[in-house]
Amino acid sequence: MGKIVIEGEHRLEGTVRINGAKNAALPIMAACILLNGPSRIRGIPNIVDIQTQSEILKELGGEVKRLEDGAIEIIFRDGENLDKYTAPYDLVSTMRASICVLGPLLTKRHKAKVSYPGGCVIGERPIDLHIKGLRAMGAQIETTEGYILASADKLAGTEVSMKGKYGTTVLGTCNVMSAAVLAEGTTVIEDAACEPEVQDLANFLNKAGAKISGIGGNKLIIEGVRELHGVDYEIIPDRIEAGTYMIAGAITKGDITLENAKQEHLIAIINKLREIGVDITTTTNSIHVKNNGIYHPIDLTTMPYPGMPTDIQAQFMALLCTIEGKSIVTEKVFPDRFMHAAELRRMGADIMVEGSCAIIKGIPFLSGTNVMVSDLRAGAGLVLAGLVAKGTTHVHRIYHLDRGYERLVERLSSLGAAIQRMSE
Ligand code: UD1
């Protein structure tokens, strides 16, 4: 098992190119089950979650390979592998997002057996809304021996809401939309998640022959079609990776340019960084981040899109720990998602967590020490803290980071960070 070792207080400078979005790639790869013939998907990052999703698709009879130009080719063919409908525990347990094969399998192969995703350190991760949506379309679903067993001779269009007690569900919307594209009749998804990754899946499916309208809003209308064909598609840039590098620039008072970053997906993040006092300028495809004086504390609340993404909360918290004054972070998507607060405290941070709020009093400097990663984004927050801390930070359990950030150490290093990967 490896660790990341960072010697702090190095200012970052330079240019970094943002990869395609992990959270768009995962449901789009799953949606290839619906397609007849080869698809080429460009921009997919080389990270462990993508390897896991590839393994799951291979279990389901798909041909998946990385081409020389970096694109991933995925081939499913109509009428083949109908007896393969199981996403096994050993793969699903390492990545919750694999639940997004449920909708495609059910509508295409009329049967799906997907290991129940189970708990997660960022809090309760139920799938009741996924199940409710698919049942409303006519699926029979039961859970048995840790698996979700779903079947349907045919799925029929219906009206269904994807709203739960913490707002809409991203992967629930993806699952129901993916099932609806080949269902009989019209499906209306009310309270649909409108995250850019959901929009990307919808655009991908439309390119493959689906009829989805309302993309980008909270009401999706899906007219079922009889078949879908393979496509060539480029996925959107990863807004969370972009946000992480923007905060890396801000926390080190650096000067960084992000290429391949879509500013319209990053408005909440850009606005908050500007409120803090970070100087940000944008062009169509790039974002320039630099320090322009003094930073101010802020209040920040995570929300479904277009609000502040929960996946950037830990990274912001690291930054706020270093800004004099009191900041308040409220987590409205996963109210218990504060595992990183305890680790930041080990670095000297003054953070008090009360329910779904964290009150942060900025301190003059963080101190390097040993910290442990609990989940992907918490890990990103700890690495950012290490970049600015006095002394050396040892970040342990970095396999979480490998799930979602391609060549993080190399890319931060190329920006001037004193960072390396070492064996434990
Ligand atoms: C996706 C993202 C994840 C991000 C999250 C919220 C992927 C692969 N993962 O996860 O990185 O943090 O969106 O933006 O895209 N909920 C229910 N019932 C359900 C489903 C969810 O109550 O059936 C609740 C959850 O507990 C949570 C909230 O709804 O409080 C949002 O979760 P959801 O949008 O479903 O997250 P994911 O799609 O799993």
Structure, described:
The protein has 14 helices and 27 strands. The chain is α/β, with parallel strands linked by helices and 424 residues long. The protein has 2 domains: 2-19 and 237-423, Enolpyruvate transferase domain (UDP-n-acetylglucosamine1-carboxyvinyl-transferase, Chain, Alpha-beta prism); 22-234, UDP-n-acetylglucosamine1-carboxyvinyl-transferase, Chain, CATH 3.65.10. Strands 3, 4, 5, 16 and 17 form a 5-stranded mixed beta sheet that branches. The chain has a 4-stranded mixed beta sheet with strand order 25-26-1-27, covered by helices on one side. It has a 4-stranded mixed beta sheet with strand order 2-18-20-19. It is globular, with a radius of gyration of 21 Å. The model has no long low-confidence stretch (mean pLDDT 96). Bound molecules: uridine-diphosphate-N-acetylglucosamine.
Write the layout of secondary structure elements.
Blueprint: E1 2-7, E2 13-17, H1 22-31, E3 35-42, H2 48-59, E4 63-66, E5 72-76, E6 86-87, H3 89-92, H4 102-109, E7 111-115, H5 128-136, E8 140-144, E9 147-151, E10 159-161, E11 163-164, E12 167-168, H6 170-180, E13 186-190, H7 196-207, E14 211-213, E15 220-223, E16 228-229, E17 232-234, H8 239-251, E18 255-259, H9 267-276, E19 278-282, E20 286-291, E21 299-302, H10 313-321, E22 326-331, H11 339-346, E23 350-354, E24 357-361, E25 370-372, H12 376-388, E26 392-396, H13 399-404, H14 408-414, E27 418-423
Parallel strand pairs: 2-18, 3-16, 3-17, 6-7, 10-13, 21-22, 25-26
Antiparallel strand pairs: 1-26, 1-27, 3-5, 4-5, 7-9, 8-9, 11-12, 13-15, 14-15, 18-20, 19-20, 22-24, 23-24
The structure holds uridine-diphosphate-N-acetylglucosamine (UD1).
